[in-house]
Amino acid sequence: MKKIVYISVFLFLVVFSSCEKQIEFNLPDVEQTLVVEGKIETGQPPIVFLTTTQGYFDPIDSSTFDNIFINDATVSMFDGFNNYPLTEINFGPASVYTTFDPNAFGVDGRDYVLNISYLDKEITAQTQIPYPVPLDSVWFELSDLSDPLDSLGFLYAEFADPDTAGNCYRWFSKRINSYTYNYDEPYNNVLGQQKDSIYIAPFGSATDDKFFNGLTFEFAVARGEIGNFEGPDDEGPEEGYFKIGDTVAVQATSITYPTYLWVRSMEDQAFSAGSPFASPGNLPTNIQGDAVGVWAGYGIYYDTIICQ
């Protein structure tokens, strides 16, 4: 019986391994769509990036980054009182639209309308900076309390959600202390450098209050990393952890529901990248007109914790 099984399996592999047929088909051209990625935060100027979409199967090379940014658009922001034109600032092939007028900086509870004119396109979007909700407390806790030599752990926070349904939140943090030693190449020169230059959101950074409306509870937060711009401790045993001696600045932000939907979908797509079972799809958008993307408002509560 075993011989028959082995022979049957062998014949199956021989027959089906020889049944190969090359299939060729032409993919339709993909019309480029304008992509808006903009935000305004408490006490900060508006920041707007304008780019174009790219076909899913289009090749990616050194010129791709040079050609995706939109230049010479007319961009402005209305805060309910005044209209502020945004100036295009170029950084090599990249560009950003913003203003340094302090009157245009984000104010909690205020609505903001973004207006964009580019070629024959008229695009608008509206968002709000929700009032931030303060954290009751923030602390550091080792991941393995049984190991006296362990120095790695997570941040924890206690939080009281207001008793109004529909609140949404997103978490950011950055380590503002410096590296105290060098790592192996190519990170053998990081001694004295600040660990994180910007606030970073970990995967799963956004949530709504569907399951904890009006409750006070504790939650844990891992350390995020910046995709392809990884640091010396973003791989290996320190990945995802904070460390004893870190000084961490925290942004606990309140966001609108459309922003939450966009962030959640964006993180889902990023997390599944490379999976053979993942499928491409458009992210939710709050942009009106012939464009996609997000115009987001962030109400920010700041805190700082020393990991010890």
Give me the secondary-structure topology.
Elements: H1 2-17, E1 34-41, E2 47-52, H2 64-67, E3 74-78, E4 83-91, E5 94-98, E6 111-118, E7 121-128, E8 135-142, E9 152-160, E10 168-175, E11 206-208, E12 216-221, E13 242-243, E14 247-255, H3 257-271, E15 287-288, E16 291-306
Parallel strand pairs: 1-16
Antiparallel strand pairs: 1-2, 2-5, 3-4, 3-6, 4-5, 6-7, 7-15, 8-9, 9-12, 9-13, 10-11, 10-14, 14-16
Query: Which term fits the overall shape?
Result: globular
| Integer count of domains | 2
Mean pLDDT: 88
Strand content: 35-45%
Low-confidence stretches: 1-18
- Distance separating the two termini: 66 Å
Describe the sheet with the most strands: 12 strands, mixed
Q: Total strand count, please?
A: 16
Helix coverage percent: 10-25%
What report would you give on this structure?
By secondary structure, this protein is mainly beta. It has two domains: 34-128, Immunoglobulin-like (Sandwich); 135-255 and 301-306. It has helices at 2-17, 64-67, 257-271; strands at residues 34-41, 47-52, 74-78, 83-91, 94-98, 111-118, 121-128, 135-142, 152-160, 168-175, 206-208, 216-221, 242-243, 247-255, 287-288, 291-306. The strands form two sheets. A twelve-stranded mixed sheet has the order 11-10-14-16-1-2-5-4-3-6-7-15, covered by helices on one side. Strands 8, 9, 12 and 13 form a four-stranded antiparallel sheet that branches. The longest helix is centred in the first third of the chain and has 16 residues, at 2-17. The termini are far apart.
